[in-house]
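> call design_seq(struct)
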């Protein structure tokens, strides 16, 4: 290998999740893992599309047969697994059905294969026999092999990941990220993704260092290259020199020690220097994350993103399945509040079985509450499950993506119908449940006075509010430089909202990523937010900084900031006034 190939290279992206790791890279895929596009195939092109599928399937089968022949003595018991895969390659259920789907749905071969395989997997997984259940994994392998042959990519044996590696991928969808096997992955880096993309949000929940938005990491890094992921600064270092490794090992040790200290302190309530207590809550996607919220000292759940149970499957979950999940969360957190946000699918969390049409602008499309008001049977199933779970603890309900009063009234009417049905059936639920709305669409801020009359609380979703206010796709790296929660328009908007809400006597919470960044605390406290919710990992640092601030001073600071019109100037003001505090809190580094 030449010197140039092993020269230390530093790449800068955005921090997906803090922390540092040093290890070997594992390049998953240059084209994107399982990011399969769906497109229409005209009648004329159908037979060539079927031919394309058949030859890809044959190629995949031949490759597998060759592996079996060549390695039968080396593979031991593993050979039987591969033989099972070979049988599956010939199975009518996969092969025949994929062809039928291309014909019937007029879709591309990749999409047809993906659809058939996810249906088959769900079927296998629903069978209680663990052996049969395990066959779902075999189907996955067969799927991967044919898919790679369809897309024309070189074979990568994922099964070879038998040691802890750093995953390097072009892109990971929220569903992919949520399936990462933590015992095998110590960090990950991607070419795509922005700070508030859902991929980044899940990365933070996973609690493994990650750097996203690196543009071309997959073009530079090779499997087995040594890399350093610095999720604190959002940089990676490829082929680090010995000195660099030593430096980062030291940083890592100090960061982890600092985290351990602030996490211990985080179990005490967050009270400002002038005695104001602020609830610091956790955001979760799945019940398993409750442990993190508790470990990191969260005072409750400020945002339960319920859509994750709807991803990675092929049909809507049943009421009982939802109820069991919600009940577990609510019981474990009781008596602390659990704010269950109703389904926010589509947008960048596309659920294939729920999207009727391809949308040119999914973020502005049939997403969240709009979807629920259209597919009321899906909405009612979820509301019934939430209400039933409310009998077991302290539940709040929250509707996402509200743009005006009618949507709230319609959603509340459906909720009231569902409550009446439960009454008739004699099923218990919490009668005085608080019903809030997310403030994510600028029109909701303009209509805050009217919305306050029909809501018990507001929760600002800054990820979307910033996206829609500044017209910047939150997942688009190209415009990430414009995505600023500290843009004066954002700050003025929050101030306006809080003032209106206070005059109406309702509380304002924040659960977007802005709430989890310790640097924003002086401003957020001065703006008068009543509660903050964030990824669990951020809770200790946020609590720590809250305890070092005087709200009175923050209020004065906000008055000065509101008069400013430049984002850069606002950053400078923050740095001048609170810079010293920030550097102390940052990481102990
Ligand atoms: C938000 O938009 O800020 C929010 C919390 O919701 P999500 O990130 O799930 O869109
Ligand atoms: Mg949102």
């Amino acid at each position: 290998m030449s010197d140039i190939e092993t020269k230390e290279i530093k790449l800068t992206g955005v921090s997906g999740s803090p922390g540092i790791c040093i290890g070997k890279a594992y390049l998953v895929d240059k084209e994107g893992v399982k990011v399969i596009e769906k497109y229409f195939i005209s009648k004329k092109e159908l037979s060539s599309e079927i031919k394309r599928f058949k030859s890809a399937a044959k190629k995949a089968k031949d490759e597998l047969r060759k592996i079996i022949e060549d390695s039968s003595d080396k593979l031991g018991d593993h050979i039987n697994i591969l033989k099972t895969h070979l049988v599956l390659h010939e199975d009518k259920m996969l092969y025949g059905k994929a062809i039928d789907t291309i014909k019937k749905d007029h879709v591309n071969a990749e999409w047809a294969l993906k659809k058939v395989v996810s249906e088959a997997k769900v079927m296998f997984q629903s069978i209680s026999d663990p052996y049969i259940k395990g066959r779902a994994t075999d189907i996955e392998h067969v799927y991967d092999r044919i898919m790679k042959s369809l897309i024309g990519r070189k074979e990568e044996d994922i099964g070879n990941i038998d040691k802890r590696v750093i995953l390097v991928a072009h892109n990971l969808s929220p569903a992919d990220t949520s399936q990462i096997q933590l015992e095998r992955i110590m960090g990950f880096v991607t070419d795509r993704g922005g700070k508030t993309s859902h991929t980044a949000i899940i990365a933070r929940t996973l609690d493994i260092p990650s750097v996203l938005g690196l543009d071309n990491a997959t073009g530079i890094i090779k499997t087995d290259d040594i890399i350093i992921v610095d999720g604190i600064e959002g940089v990676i270092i490829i082929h680090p020199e010995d000195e660099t490794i030593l430096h980062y090992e030291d940083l890592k040790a100090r960061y982890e020690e600092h985290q351990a200290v602030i996490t211990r302190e985080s179990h005490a309530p967050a009270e400002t220097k002038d005695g104001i207590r602020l609830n610091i809550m956790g955001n979760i996607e799945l019940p398993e994350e409750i442990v993190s919220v508790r470990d990191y000292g969260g005072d409750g759940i400020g945002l339960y993103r319920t859509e994750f149970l709807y991803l990675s499957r092929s049909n809507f979950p049943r009421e009982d399945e939802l109820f069991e999940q919600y009940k577990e969360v609510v019981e474990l957190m009781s008596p602390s509040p659990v704010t269950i946000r109703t389904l926010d699918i589509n947008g960048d969390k596309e659920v294939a079985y729920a999207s009727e049409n391809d949308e040119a602008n999914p973020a502005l499309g049939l997403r969240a509450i709009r979807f629920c008001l259209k597919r009321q049977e899906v909405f009612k199933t979820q509301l019934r499950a939430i209400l039933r779970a409310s009998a077991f603890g302290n539940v709040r309900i929250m509707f996402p993506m509200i743009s005006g009063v009618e949507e709230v009234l319609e959603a509340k009417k459906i909720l009231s119908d569902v409550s009446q049905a439960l009454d008739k059936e004699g099923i218990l639920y919490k009668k005085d449940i608080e019903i809030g709305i997310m403030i994510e669409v600028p029109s909701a801020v303009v209509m805050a006075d009217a919305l306050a009359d029909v809501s018990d609380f507001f929760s600002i979703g800054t990820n979307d509010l910033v996206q829609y206010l500044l017209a910047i796709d939150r997942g688009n790296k190209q415009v990430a430089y414009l995505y600023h929660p500290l843009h004066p328009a954002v700050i003025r908007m929050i101030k306006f909202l809080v003032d209106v809400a206070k005059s109406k006597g309702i509380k304002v919470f924040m659960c977007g990523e802005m709430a989890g960044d310790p640097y924003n605390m002086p401003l957020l406290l001065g703006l008068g937010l009543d509660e903050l919710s964030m990824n669990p990992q951020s809770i200790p640092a946020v609590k720590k900084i809250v305890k070092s601030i005087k709200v009175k001073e923050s209020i004065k600071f906000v008055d000065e900031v509101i008069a400013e019109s430049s984002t850069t100037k606002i950053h400078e003001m923050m740095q001048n006034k609170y810079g010293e505090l920030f550097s102390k809190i940052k990481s102990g580094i």
